[in-house]
Amino acid sequence: MPSEADQERIARYRPLSGMETPRFSGLASFMRLPVMEPREAPGRIDIGLVGIPFDGATTNRPGARLGPRGVREASTGTRARNAATGIAPYDLAACADLGDVPVNPVDVAATARAIEAFYRPLAQAGIVPLSVGGDHFVTYPVLRALGRTRPLGLIHIDAHSDTDDGQYDGTRLTHGTPFRRAIEDGVLDPRRMVQIGLRGSTDSVDELDWALGQGIRIVPMEAVIDRGLPSVLAEARTVVGDGPTYLSFDVDALDPAYAPGTGTPEMGGFTSREALQILRALRGIDLVGADVVEVAPPLDPSGVTALVGATLAFEILCLLAEAVAARRD
Amino acid sequence: MPSEADQERIARYRPLSGMETPRFSGLASFMRLPVMEPREAPGRIDIGLVGIPFDGATTNRPGARLGPRGVREASTGTRARNAATGIAPYDLAACADLGDVPVNPVDVAATARAIEAFYRPLAQAGIVPLSVGGDHFVTYPVLRALGRTRPLGLIHIDAHSDTDDGQYDGTRLTHGTPFRRAIEDGVLDPRRMVQIGLRGSTDSVDELDWALGQGIRIVPMEAVIDRGLPSVLAEARTVVGDGPTYLSFDVDALDPAYAPGTGTPEMGGFTSREALQILRALRGIDLVGADVVEVAPPLDPSGVTALVGATLAFEILCLLAEAVAARRD
Amino acid sequence: MPSEADQERIARYRPLSGMETPRFSGLASFMRLPVMEPREAPGRIDIGLVGIPFDGATTNRPGARLGPRGVREASTGTRARNAATGIAPYDLAACADLGDVPVNPVDVAATARAIEAFYRPLAQAGIVPLSVGGDHFVTYPVLRALGRTRPLGLIHIDAHSDTDDGQYDGTRLTHGTPFRRAIEDGVLDPRRMVQIGLRGSTDSVDELDWALGQGIRIVPMEAVIDRGLPSVLAEARTVVGDGPTYLSFDVDALDPAYAPGTGTPEMGGFTSREALQILRALRGIDLVGADVVEVAPPLDPSGVTALVGATLAFEILCLLAEAVAARRD
Amino acid sequence: MPSEADQERIARYRPLSGMETPRFSGLASFMRLPVMEPREAPGRIDIGLVGIPFDGATTNRPGARLGPRGVREASTGTRARNAATGIAPYDLAACADLGDVPVNPVDVAATARAIEAFYRPLAQAGIVPLSVGGDHFVTYPVLRALGRTRPLGLIHIDAHSDTDDGQYDGTRLTHGTPFRRAIEDGVLDPRRMVQIGLRGSTDSVDELDWALGQGIRIVPMEAVIDRGLPSVLAEARTVVGDGPTYLSFDVDALDPAYAPGTGTPEMGGFTSREALQILRALRGIDLVGADVVEVAPPLDPSGVTALVGATLAFEILCLLAEAVAARRD
Amino acid sequence: MPSEADQERIARYRPLSGMETPRFSGLASFMRLPVMEPREAPGRIDIGLVGIPFDGATTNRPGARLGPRGVREASTGTRARNAATGIAPYDLAACADLGDVPVNPVDVAATARAIEAFYRPLAQAGIVPLSVGGDHFVTYPVLRALGRTRPLGLIHIDAHSDTDDGQYDGTRLTHGTPFRRAIEDGVLDPRRMVQIGLRGSTDSVDELDWALGQGIRIVPMEAVIDRGLPSVLAEARTVVGDGPTYLSFDVDALDPAYAPGTGTPEMGGFTSREALQILRALRGIDLVGADVVEVAPPLDPSGVTALVGATLAFEILCLLAEAVAARRD
Amino acid sequence: MPSEADQERIARYRPLSGMETPRFSGLASFMRLPVMEPREAPGRIDIGLVGIPFDGATTNRPGARLGPRGVREASTGTRARNAATGIAPYDLAACADLGDVPVNPVDVAATARAIEAFYRPLAQAGIVPLSVGGDHFVTYPVLRALGRTRPLGLIHIDAHSDTDDGQYDGTRLTHGTPFRRAIEDGVLDPRRMVQIGLRGSTDSVDELDWALGQGIRIVPMEAVIDRGLPSVLAEARTVVGDGPTYLSFDVDALDPAYAPGTGTPEMGGFTSREALQILRALRGIDLVGADVVEVAPPLDPSGVTALVGATLAFEILCLLAEAVAARRD
């Protein structure tokens, strides 16, 4: 229960309601929330929604740079209260749209620096970031900012492990390598890391061997099907434990029927109900940040992928708001 | 078993077969059935298929006014016999396409009157209507025509409750209010009404409280998943009982992967097999009318939503034909 | 040449440059301009860009309610200086995005009132509005606000005359009637009104007779081809003269190849170069407001129509900025 | 001027007006005209609109079998009077939609027989057919039916000559051969035949040599550009003279920007205004039939090609109605 | 375990890796495998991937002629090792892309002969074909080539039985008849044939009666749901036994949500995970050939169907490689 | 006239004809030409078609990395002889598809090196490259390879000047800077360089000033319209003179109606006929290489942009073949 002062503060940051103005009207901020300059955020808000419109580390089909814009638009359809869990995130935490990181679309390393520089003051101010990518590379600099003081645990929902060492004879910063880099940098604790939903074909077994050697818990899609999601999710909770944990959701974890608009789709993924089931099982984990990545609107003419991205973001926002409230108490 | 006279009459109204002329040829009437003026229907047919090309009560993305045309086209792929249930609807009931209600696309109230005026003579003649919308508002005037002599029961498959009181400071006729209006008018019996598949986020809990206060049985998607569809469907039968019942199927009950072409899609809906399972469980209910609504073809470039709409309409036609036959006996 | 104080004021309202942050990043305001509450606009800005996301008066295919959002996105590709004319609008006038009018998507009359109420204080404060629709009906209430003190002249670029008396047996407020209503209300001077680009088939000759009877100058597309655009545009200048004039550009004036995303496309329209030629010929007219209407993004999967809408809006903004500067001098 | 009896007869066959019911409502017949069984047409109507949903002779991308359905839908946007020419076709001739030829999608020869059998009684009854394909092969059997008693002249607007002898080592019935076959059969007079708009690359010069050897007048696109359309169209009139003439319009004559939905698009074609200009220049020719072919809706997500097909069909209908009226006088 | 010579030979035919050159680069051969002339294949390779770009036997919507091209492109995303089963097909068998059969798009019978002529030398050389259609008719001539010396068993995954006798009053070679023709020709053993996933509506019960009369085991979708896939797949293994068996996978077996790009979609089909589950259960069967058919890219703007087709082809390739290795041992 | 030996050699490299196998069959090489390893090209061929699937220097919407694949597919529709000019390129020069440059999608500088390394041996062997991009940055390393021994002239058709110095505070290798870099490197002679078609809005006048200061001849679209294309093209010939000249065609030079599938479309561009007119006017120039860039297939659902790209490539191939033949004589 927030203090009276907190309640008052929180009440200042509410999304526009579709009961008063139509959801398709007005500028499309995340969830129709107020827009705020990042430098004004400290002391005012608890959770900052941030776009990272960068796909310059993509080695497959591009388009995720347009993800933040697409997810913002689709997110105008979310409302104030999660009907399934009863969570009303805007009653628990002050939330705002902090705009986009100023990326450099043609320079991976420069963008990595820009992202880290954007998130570091947020981290220092205790503002929990919910980011929308962008390709999966963007998670690496975010982790560098958030995991600076102590390595984080990670719940990683994805079709791919993204723990490659490199591609093309030595290129080490791609959307296939973020978690290897983060582990090497000590900002991610591989023994508190679980990957769920991996599938498809692979180029080698080395990547897998390295990941297992680091202590990462990997639950490929086949294991999910065999064991059932409840067992897998219970294990995930055990792996990350009580420590500070990041949540990274690659939309290609879902089957292409549910999320065709992504650069590297893999047949045989999660249904949308399973994706929601996964997220709703993560209540109570000490989440300190999260992202939804790889939404590539130009690859999806029907727009369902952006809708999925926006709905996942809302569900994660509910988790983050509860975590914020729990830490406040 | 129809009487010999009935059999002869029924045999006059058969769809064209794709074994003789290709399904893509000829004018696209519903199910390739004969087209008939509504005023000629009484005494000739048992079931009338009607389009209601109206989306003027939509508060989100429009396009459902093009639903009847899209569903007619897709329905040319249906054939004479339901392979799953064995029902051959055109052997049980005389069916025809009665064309579209003459709506006024920019005037909700005038359209409500036009719809009611269109259905009243059909109701008086005992012709069972199967309607294709159009946004969900259109169900309200249909219920006014059909429930005029006694309130109806309702099986309502949808992502949304559509029992709002109003929007925008007092607008009471929208696609979010049809069932509240119908209950207020006494044409719908809330205690014989069940809503299945509700989900997503909500703007308030008032709508839900009102609905529960009226005695409506609500089974949100989470409860469907927990309990399983068979239990839910058994309860639905109990709720509506033996009395005259209407069936309203909003295509957004399905997950956006299965039905992207709708104005207010919500992640996490029914699969197509579940939708068929629901309908096939409703055999034996005393159905007096039904509709499929919110198919918005411009929002679905692959056309699967119109296909879903057409297939649902065919499955419902099978139910209505059995109900007609049962009442005849 | 603005005064020093004006220059300083104007300099506060500049669009973000794509040379510094990518055009696809950040919230998509019109032209990447600052966003401002309408009530804060008086005294600060000269030109207000406004979205009117309403297509509830559309009697054909809907979708224009999503026009403001689509045009905002596409407008992020415009830059600071018009390379063809040399006009640098943001050096001449302070411009801002004033957001969207709070429309009621299911009530034409209520929306008309909301639009008029939104524009009246702008008009009183001398702020020149550049509006993006929405269907063409929205021009009527804008004209009521702007033409209140004296009737306006009108340059109307369109495939349709939009001077019908009504449809469906007496419905008088549709996207086919705005100019007839505005003339009846005395806010539009038909003798200072010219319509350019009309074409296609017609339901009757009555509409035309009425318009000609009022003194409206009509230049159908055939006459444009015969006479050449320069002659037509010279005539247009003569018709509107030196008085205050409104400019209304319906995107369906363009050929469907150039602007497929509109509700009532008509084969045989303007090319994009002709559209630019038309606008660039209107320099020096005393424009007091303008709009671009009928952009319907869901009907255009390639997005070229929103791009056309945004580019037309930028060209018109250049005209308005010059008019503002001229009136200032 | 039709006789009083004719006027009365003609008045029975009028299209539905969009001023009374919306254009998107009701079953989509050609131009919203009455639907009639072909066998009931003789004595009742002057012009029969017919769909030929066949693309089984296509050697490139398929989809034109869905042309009649797509054009019917788009044609609901045409109105009663041609604003450019003033022709009101439904005042001059009784018109109806005669449905589709019962084609066999997998058998070219059988379909050729079915088409010829469908058109022969129409020809005998003096009913002028306006056909919508379907690939260009369908013109061949139509010509066999119409040119049976004397060879016809032909105005052929197309990107391709369609006078090949065959493909794939001897296949002689394809969409590349209809006019060669018709000339061989004596139903088409090559000296009264003109082809306008040919362009692109070619596999050989043999086809051209044969065509020129037969006396066909060929005006490739380059010549159109050099000489100007008026000169070309004057020549076309001279070529066909006063005799009975058929008009065949392949939508790929237009540039792919204007008509992307066709199987064999060729860059550099006619604009939509030129296409209209061509047709409007053909008034007074003794047209006995016409077609619009190669509209392939699945290849055009924006629908502009079907709109072009429908508008061309309406313009041609105006020509046919005048020809009918002229022959009646 | 291949002999050393075999290992050396097999190692010559490896796909390009996406770790070295991007998957979107280079000509798109199946799986990025080497391309080889069919006449050079004997003695060199074990498995030949072949495209059959023919949809001239389609009685519904066309487009499958573009299937091979679409599947080749999507197949560039597959990698060297099946992560779920651990099979590394290119270690077990030498594979190459043999190009496309030279079909005649307008002549079903000629194409049947061309297909059979293409496959006969492959069959004689013991090369196992994996074909990508094309419509389902193409399976018939492939079976004639492969089943020439002894009738084959068949595992048939499809929404439709494709055992019709004919359509349109006697047309016997369509995509609805391949298996009836193959049984009549003695190249397919109906008692070793199982059909899984049939569903939808039917025109008659005759087709079913004939199929059952022949001894074909039919498991419609309803039975799959009732019994569960494991039981069905165990039965399938029993039906085909140890004998040489063909596998034919029609992509319309999947639900339209998963595979919208197909000519005759039927609501209520398999999910992508079930499709993979089916294939992975077929390890150990003596497969002598296989195909994936009815992928129609023009009907699927998001491209998921081609992705499904390519992934199914990869999974089947794994099965065939194991079968080749097993026969080698 | 090639020597007999040349004729024999040239005759070995002919495209497959659509008269023998359908254009949609087989692997899609450029123009259906033979595929050859670059290292085997010297001494065998005169012209090499090369794909450069790289869009990592794009600062706007991505997708051009898929350009080579899209253009290859569309190019299968071109035939052996240019009907407009009579040029039969495959009779004049031996042509082959040399595959794609092995780019690194996430590293601009590494890709620049890879491109230069790919083209240098071709240049040394006197093989004329016709490249398909990729974003416009790729022209820079190609120019470095071709202009190494002496600076080249340039005919540059584009909506943008691409002579920026940098973006984002110092990034110098982007698709907006290739020609500035090439001039700085001395491989491009600015006084023999002409830019045609520039238009739209600009961020500053600096870029223009620099370009003019270098002596580049710039003909913006407005000047093209004013002066007419013939005058502009005559000037272009004068500018480049008799020296070795490169031709670079950015598809965004065309209007978005003709080429929507490009990252930075600008309203008001060339028509397709003008684009052909431009190219056909360049006969006789001493062309030593050429490219077509910025085709981004994911941004164009109708595929017309890839068709335009392929047709432009064919027209340019005709020019290059004539230049090769002229140099041979």
Automatic annotation (TrEMBL), chains A, B, C, D, E, F:
The keyword Metal-binding applies. GO terms for molecular function: guanidinopropionase activity. Its EC number is 3.5.3.17. It holds the Pfam family Arginase. InterPro entries: Agmatinase-rel (IPR005925), Ureohydrolase (IPR006035), Ureohydrolase_dom_sf (IPR023696), Ureohydrolase_Mn_BS (IPR020855). Keywords: Hydrolase, Metal-binding. It comes from the Bacteria. The keyword Metal-binding applies. Belongs to the arginase family. Agmatinase subfamily. NCBIfam families: agmatinase (TIGR01230). This is Guanidinopropionase. It comes from Methylobacterium goesingense.
